[in-house]
Amino acid sequence: MSVFMYPLDNEKRRVISLDGIWKFKFDTQGVGRNENWKDGLTDTIEMVVPSSYNDIFTEAAKRDFCGDVWYQTDFYIPSEFEALDTLIRFGSATHRATVFVNGVELVSHEGGFTPFGGNLNDVAKFGQKNTVVVVVNNELSKVTIPVGSVKTHDNGVKECTPAFDFFNYAGIHSSVRLVAVPKTRVNDITVVTGFEGTTGTVEYTIESALNAGQEIRVSLLNAEGEVVATADGQQGSLTVENVILWQPRKGYLYDLVATIVEGEELVDIYTLPVGVRTVKVEGTKFLINNEPFYFKGFGHHIDAHTIGRGHSDIMNLRDLECLDWIHANSLRTSHYPYPEEFMQLADRRGLVIIDEVSHVGAWNMTDVSQAGMGGSNAVPVKHFDREDVQTEGMVNHKDAITKLIARDKNHPCVVMWSLSNEPDSSQESSEAYFKEIFAFARDGLDAQDRPMTMVNFMLAAYGNCKASQFADVVCLNRYYGWYVTNGADLPNAGDQFAKELAGWATEGKPVIITEFGADTVSGFHALPSTMFTEEYYNEYLDQNFAAFDSCDAVVGEHCWNMHDFNTGQGIIRVNGNKKGAFTRDRQPKMAAHHLRARWGVVKDFNQK
Ligand code: BDP
Q1: I need a labelling partner for 301 at 20 to 30 A (CA). Which of 23, 36, 120, 330 fits?
Q2: SS3 call for 131
Q3: What residues in the chain have per-residue pLDDT under 50?
Q4: pLDDT at 484
Q5: Domain of 221?
Q6: What pLDDT does residue 364 have?
């Protein structure tokens, strides 16, 4: 089964959760791989799966640990599973992992945000106790996705130096499950939806190796569970009369039920939620269901006190409630694929998603970092001039894109792929790099052919960006009134921003402001305002709103960030990044009320 298919428990499939408390061990000396810790860990402590391990402890050395950590638990596979294929499936482990079952290596995976797993049939004992050991590593390099580096201190302790500001949380971040599926099964499904007037279509392709006498039957059920269309075969088209479209904030979903039958006998069944909608860029408009859509919302982080980047349905739901309250209609999964369960909620709620691959921080690996986050990561060779970046880095980047699209291709909430956040696209050598990345991503990975973008960094301002020419939509992270024209010059920030936007508008593409925000410590007040106060954030927002409204090509505004989030330590981070409209515990700052007042008026469609 494609590991990207979300695990389902149904008539023919079984899911057993392995979440909970696992045994855990820091490999402080880096000896575990040679000393065969894969056969079983000794002297362990406890760890929660899923979670980041970093903020569970009280010691800095554990929070900031760089290297291998080891996990172990026992599990049983019921004997009746012998007739099935049983996978052990990890939703994600950051940034890479190797899984051993009963001492045998089962699977290794690179990339911290996408699922992986391996078939247990040959290595596991049915009806008996099995042991799984997992080694997870959080190190970063110039060719990993995301990028970063590792320093080794004089005492031999390694330090991860990410090239991005969000905290480099690590661990088993999503659920671990045993997934038992029939030997003949639906391996994968791909859907493409459309509509003409009131008639909707769902084209589907099902990957499956059928035996003689077996056939595929597909039906589409509406939200009431009534069959509205049927089809047979591995590929086909379902027609839905009086279709109810998936709309922003009204996430109507049908269920596509794919079955394999042999005569009257059911062999396998898989149910995929499907939203019927179209997405298209036309001139400077971003069309959802042929209507010009206006993005209102945030760049976000999966980030919470104590659980770090671990998946939490509680935090996801709270975030969605806050987004509804503030009248947001969209979100960017900055700066990595989000938990599958988050994407499912977004489908159901009608939250529009710009889905981002974890290529972030590539600007910060060059000498330009002196101008940015403290300058501590500077290396003399510019990122895209490095041969290893153009070769190995490119391979890893493509791999991350492939996995993101394979996992999220059927989600109606996803309307655009973001292939990178803030690379230094002012470099000549970034042009060839992104030409190849965009060509690769557009070459059949997404049957829905969604728009593709990359998120532009302010040092590659209008006229200076070598990569945005390949994007369908210009996405800009801009900090006029914060990093550029700061406090003293705030009254001019809007005009300066508007000037740059007028330049971008001549490209004839839609423009989305994917980041704008000012660090604000909740509860800081000043009259007249000063930077970091709540008053300043509101004035900063007004300057930005004026710039957006001055430019017809602007079709969206995503404030950075939805909430305060944890970062590495640095001289421009006050116990984390404080640009949240909400605090880290998801309570509104004054800025949230200000955004809410505007977004309650700005329409989802036909704004400009
Ligand atoms: C941008 C990055 C984002 C940072 C933000 C900031 O895309 O990840 O958190 O700036 O500095 O450079 O707040």
Answers
A1: 23
A2: strand
A3: 367-375
A4: 87
A5: 188-274
A6: 62
